[in-house]
């Protein structure tokens, strides 16, 4: 039997920027001391995580010779989020986000150190990568909702939207640097050092979190435990179109289009024959477009559902358009533009969901969003990898682009006709 439903105050108006920001204020949230420290550690960590992701995927492809095996790696890492994601949101609402993040980053560092030791001693096997991916998935269950909500504790409501854009920018800038460095390492000395770098970066993050000025955090009181907390969050989220529709589109995008690195490995190895360095280059091009999208999102004045829908539709359409491009430069250019659209969707959806949810329930709402966004990749990774083996990499990319484009188009028509969302 569920406990009594809590009454949350109505969500305040979604913050908008009344006038276009001067360029010097594009990342105005970095004025906050705690957020500057967090953003710096986040930037280092993202570079290292991208290095590990590229090295991991390429090593699995070389050890197994199968794109499907790369997809299984994605599934192993994201399946725990699909199964246990809401539980992570409960923990984020009930306990210190800073402490949870420290525990998660220390655990991730140990996982990276294990992979590094195995790779450098030439004893790394595919099953080792799968096992560590599962452990990292369990870490992500707690890390992601805690990280999402902790941003608000760092900057408060006034700078929340801008801080989300800064986080997206650092993530994409790291995604620009990390794959390029990983590609160079793979070609020069192998992928083991990429895992070592990530282990060091994780422990730097733990140290930086310890240096925050705790008295300056905008800490929300913990939500007391009660029965029916997850059901309450689902009902709360589903009643709000600004949460429901980004949530639904995130599920479609996650399953069909967010496991793009799996297919890019196939393009680098089977379609264009450009090797590990080329694989890193393709991921770098996607990140370059995403970086531009992140900067644009930081300067966007209006936060609208329409932006989320258009971003999702264009991302899918560009992937479908790129699928059979015979020219590597044209394919790379389309990947960069698709990265811009993907980031526009992801940042706008994240901002809309966060600013539409009250603080007392935000951890659970964000865990549900993370569950579909990351957990969907647990389904999409092996599906796209399997389709690449069965149909070929190009047909798999075409399929992965067409479905999100159609879903976004259908939702756009639904909303345009004035039907109640």
From TrEMBL:
<feature type="transmembrane region" description="Helical">
    <location>
        <begin position="274"/>
        <end position="296"/>
    </location>
</feature>
<keyword id="KW-1133">Transmembrane helix</keyword>
<feature type="transmembrane region" description="Helical">
    <location>
        <begin position="37"/>
        <end position="55"/>
    </location>
</feature>
<dbReference type="InterPro" id="IPR020846">
    <property type="entry name" value="MFS_dom"/>
</dbReference>
<feature type="transmembrane region" description="Helical">
    <location>
        <begin position="331"/>
        <end position="353"/>
    </location>
</feature>
<feature type="domain" description="Major facilitator superfamily (MFS) profile">
    <location>
        <begin position="194"/>
        <end position="421"/>
    </location>
</feature>
<feature type="transmembrane region" description="Helical">
    <location>
        <begin position="67"/>
        <end position="88"/>
    </location>
</feature>
<protein>
    <submittedName>
        <fullName>MFS transporter</fullName>
    </submittedName>
</protein>
<keyword id="KW-0813">Transport</keyword>
<feature type="transmembrane region" description="Helical">
    <location>
        <begin position="394"/>
        <end position="415"/>
    </location>
</feature>
<feature type="transmembrane region" description="Helical">
    <location>
        <begin position="365"/>
        <end position="388"/>
    </location>
</feature>
<dbReference type="Pfam" id="PF05977">
    <property type="entry name" value="MFS_3"/>
</dbReference>
<feature type="transmembrane region" description="Helical">
    <location>
        <begin position="126"/>
        <end position="142"/>
    </location>
</feature>
<feature type="transmembrane region" description="Helical">
    <location>
        <begin position="100"/>
        <end position="120"/>
    </location>
</feature>
<dbReference type="InterPro" id="IPR036259">
    <property type="entry name" value="MFS_trans_sf"/>
</dbReference>
<feature type="transmembrane region" description="Helical">
    <location>
        <begin position="247"/>
        <end position="268"/>
    </location>
</feature>
<keyword id="KW-0472">Membrane</keyword>
<feature type="transmembrane region" description="Helical">
    <location>
        <begin position="308"/>
        <end position="325"/>
    </location>
</feature>
<feature type="transmembrane region" description="Helical">
    <location>
        <begin position="163"/>
        <end position="186"/>
    </location>
</feature>
<feature type="transmembrane region" description="Helical">
    <location>
        <begin position="192"/>
        <end position="212"/>
    </location>
</feature>
<keyword id="KW-1003">Cell membrane</keyword>
<keyword id="KW-0812">Transmembrane</keyword>
<dbReference type="InterPro" id="IPR010290">
    <property type="entry name" value="TM_effector"/>
</dbReference>
